[in-house]
Amino acid sequence: MRENRNYPRANAVLPVRVTYREKHSTIGTEGSLNDFSNGGVGLILSHRLPTTLPTASLCISLGPTHQVLELDVRVVWLRPMQGDSSFRCGFQFVNVTDEQLQQLKDAIRPDDTFIKGCIQHIVETTRDSELKDSITRFFVNEVKSYITNIAAAFENAQDGAVATERAKKQINEFSNNIVLSGNRLEDVVQDKLTALEIRKAFRLLLGPWIYQSHLMKHGFEKPKGYPGDHALLEHIYDNRLTSRPGSLGMYFDNYFLGNAYAESVRKRKDKTLDLLRRYLEGATSKLAVLNLACGSCREIRDLMAENTKYADQLQLTALDQDVDALRFSEQALRSVAPALSVRFVQEDILNLIRDPKGFAKNLGSQDVIYSIGLADYLPDRVLKKLVKFCMGILRPGGRFIIAHKDQERDKQAPLPPEWFCDWHFCERSEAKLINLVQEVTTCPITIERDASERIFFLIVTPPET
Which of 75, 366, 399, 462 is a good FRET partner for 294, with 20 to 30 A between their CA atoms? Predict the structure, then answer.
């Protein structure tokens, strides 16, 4: 199975009945539900339905409880099944509520057969019999138990059996444990392609639960094509839940924002603000500052909100590939610091190293060049070229700053975004990044850290002439 949809689907087999009005009669047909997503269901029905139906009524029997869930649906497609008199149909939900979706999700928790079907391609391509067993046990035992545990914690909170805060702690603990278990399995697998397929199957099975969180879903779908776009980072900076209060999505919003990596992102922003403040306070003239992959320019906005005097001391160039990020930053900065001199440049970072001479002329000399949340995603060869470009436009006595996650500090911190949201980091330690930069420049290097100690700031200072 391949993760080629916006979000994974979950399969189940539940009895259904579809009824609709035709002229003055009510007509019904029986069948079963065999495919489900947040947007609709796939059914196998005993009789053909008119594809021109405006709406129909779908009644789903929810497992052993025999509770019936009634939903309004619209026929999207219909095709006959080969060698059978039945029909496979696709229906779109009409005005479905979060509560109804949750009822359906609770009824279709995957059984062993479905789980084994999801991982069949992984197991079949694995030669080692012990490793096959380890992969199967992880999914059939641990992933299945994880789904049961988070569902139970949520239901207990809904019923009032446990406090909301207690349920949050339980779901956080269950989630941390499952990614740690998955990471241990990866250590045994040691094959990158197999490891990627394991993570895909993991998200396929858990998607109907974890992607009820608007933040987790946004992180996984990457609407801008890359992890951590400006909109998502704004939510992380604000530490703000976005899913409906009391929903399962709210609990996973809480988990996403409370993760150690998200905390480090907030502390990284605060440290960047501190460095900028320090440089501006020590400057004798206006500073030219280049912010690479600027995103929402949150640290600049916070600096301006702190004291508008900094607007007169700063000439900012904000560069990002995302025009929406630049528009957001422009509006936000205008509201907090209308006097700030700022130039917005829409450009892909890779183009700077493809045409270094052209962009050196375009951007001009800079007193401070900094990037936070970019280097972690750049392979060594690209990062070296970017360092070389930046050092080429940095004025003597200036500062080039790279913020980077330390692979040797709190190795668990990046696991949740890696497993749940499919984020991929280029891991480096402080020593590795220093060695990489020293291959490009002999200028003095200093290291500072944010308050979480998980992010270090490598600062290159060319000597004054």
Answer: 462
